[in-house]
Specification:
Blueprint (H helix, E strand, L loop, with lengths): L20 H6 L10 H4 L30 E9 L10 E5 L25 E5 L5 E7 L4 E2 L7 E2 L2 E6 L8 E6 L10 H4 L4 H5 L4 E2 L10 E4 L2 E2 L13
Parallel strand pairs: 1-10, 1-11
Antiparallel strand pairs: 1-4, 2-3, 2-7, 5-6, 7-8, 9-10
The structure holds fe (ii) ion.
Length: 233
């Protein structure tokens, strides 16, 4: 355990991990600067300019038609280090479509855009810390990090806590993906159990008959069982 950190080495992704090329460009070269305390206390804005709507957590109902792909339910609880629920916290996600393409100007790899899928959603946890999304299972996509580089299917998550300064970002994967062994983002976590915390679990209880498979993904914000988060130092 490094006493200057709140987590054990290998359980959070390092800021610099050369096999993941982008970290070489963005990892800080100098010691980090403490943010003035008043910035840590900024409590707003949490929800952007638009109020939350009923389809914000259902990515299959945000357009006139249904998106193509395998419909899934993704649900779980946001918990603190003692396993207590973290209620009323904003959870956002973003992802590519079933073909592995983001609706983003920088993504121009040859896979189709789905006009019925934006790939972004948000919700707020309930009193038990529970969130739920309905979406489409994302595809794997090539990303140019190294020859024949493909990201395992994943969904990006952001959690806001009680202020912008407490925002945490991570990625959720799907069980038994053969690309784990080749993905330097996943592999940047040395601790096997920490890696597994990023992998959702198929859940027959969440699965809705004749409609959608369910995956459970609990998110632990701190402590020994913390979910790995990007950029945590
Ligand atoms: Fe991604």
């Amino acid at each position: 355990m490094d006493r200057s950190r709140s987590f054990e080495i290998g359980t959070q992704p390092p800021l610099l991990y050369p096999p993941y090329g982008s970290t070489v460009k963005r990892a800080p070269e100098r010691p980090l600067i403490q943010i003035p305390r008043q910035f840590n206390n900024l409590a707003a804005p949490l929800y952007g300019h638009l109020p939350m709507t009923g389809v914000d957590n259902d990515l299959t109902r945000q357009h006139d038609g249904e998106p193509l792909g395998e419909r899934i339910v993704v649900s779980g609880r946001v918990l603190d280090e003692d396993g207590r629920a973290v209620p009323h916290t904003l959870v956002e996600l973003w992802q590519c479509n079933a073909a592995g393409r983001y609706r983003h100007p920088r993504d121009n790899h040859p896979a189709p855009i789905d006009p019925n899928f934006s790939g972004a959603g948000r919700t707020v946890t309930d009193a038990d810390g529970r969130y739920e999304f309905v979406t489409i299972k994302p595809g794997a996509y090539p990303w140019g990090n190294h020859p024949n580089a493909w990201r395992p299917a994943h969904i990006h998550f952001s959690l806001f806590g009680h202020s912008i300064a407490s925002r945490l970002v991570t990625q959720m994967y799907f069980p038994n993906d053969p690309l784990f062994a080749y993905d330097p983002i996943y592999q940047s976590l040395r601790d096997e159990r920490a890696r597994e915390r990023l992998v959702s679990k198929f859940d027959i209880g969440l699965t809705r008959p004749d409609w959608a498979l369910g995956y459970r993904f609990d998110i632990v914000l701190r402590g020994r069982d913390s979910t790995p988060f990007e950029g945590r130092v």
